[in-house]
Amino acid sequence: MSTMPEAKRAAVECWTADPCGWVDGEPGTADYARALVAARQEYAPWMGATLDYEGARGLDVLDVGCGQGMDLIGYAEAGARVTGIDLTPRHAELARRHLEALGLEGEVVVGDAERMPFEDASFDRVSSNGVLHHTPDMHAALCEIRRVLHAGGEARIIVYNRHSLHYAVAQVWWQGLMHGGLRREGSMAGVLSTTVERTSIGARPLVRVYTASELRDELRSAGFVDVRTTRRHFRWADIGWRTLGESAPSVRRRIGEAAGWYVVGLGRNA
């Protein structure tokens, strides 16, 4: 019998059946990899700059929870030496194949963010995009990220934002109250596990949300210094106003900076 905690088994089940960022096409091919990158750019055009692909040129970069490899591709194309780790073997397999299909070099391993198989001070930069809100022990994962960073190395962490319009309107009000999710599940944690992530098999991965101050506290508790946070990402469709999807990009950007669905945390290993 597997000794993997239930939350982690649920995550592996979810993303084995439905790898994160799935698009139409044949997984593992160059065309599919390019479609993944294009879909990410369309969904969140701010992510590449926020993760600072270009600033990682010549650095050893680790992507924790690399999924199908979108960020690995971005860093590798910018000239970084990339390594990915993911709990889901299917994700690791696809990330590896997508790098190869695009003629990019990189290492991808199966592993747990809370207990990573890397030596101390192995990397100049660690990125984790939309992953650590699924792990049961955020503190352990951040401590591991700091452990594998060189002195002065930087971590860039993106998680879901509790103080976002998407959480308040789409999750609490619409799913939790109007659709009876809170009555059925008894908590917003239960609601989030059934509504946030794409699943074709009824998987229920752990989904947590963090405020900017909570993420700062988590980073500092793990030993990071020069910690700062920003909020990003708002689309009208996230609160059900699909007809406004193409309007007022500057307004959407300002809303995202005030109440976006993601909190971005940056910290440095002293």
Short characterization:
This protein has 270 residues and is of the alpha/beta class. It is 41% helix and 19% strand. The chain has helices spanning 6-17, 30-43, 47-51, 70-77, 89-101, 138-148, 165-178, 181-185, 188-195, 212-221, 249-259, and strands spanning 60-64, 81-86, 107-110, 123-129, 149-160, 224-232, 262-269.
Describe the largest sheet.
7 strands, mixed
- Work out the helicity level: 40-55%
> Could you state the order of secondary-structure elements as H and E?
HHHEHEHEEHEHHHHEHE
Percent of residues in beta strands: 15-25%
Structural class: alpha/beta
Report the span from N to C terminus: 41 Å
Q: What is the β-strand count? A: 7
- Strand line-up of the largest beta sheet: 3-2-1-4-5-7-6
Q: Which assembly state applies to the chains in this document?
A: single chain
Coarse morphology: globular
Low confidence ranges:
none
CATH architecture label name = 3-Layer(aba) Sandwich
Rg for CA atoms: 18 Å
Number of domains: 1
User: So, the CATH homologous superfamily?
Assistant: Vaccinia Virus protein VP39
What is the arithmetic mean of pLDDT? 95
| CATH T-level fold name | Rossmann fold
CATH hierarchy class name? Alpha Beta
Number of separate helices: 11
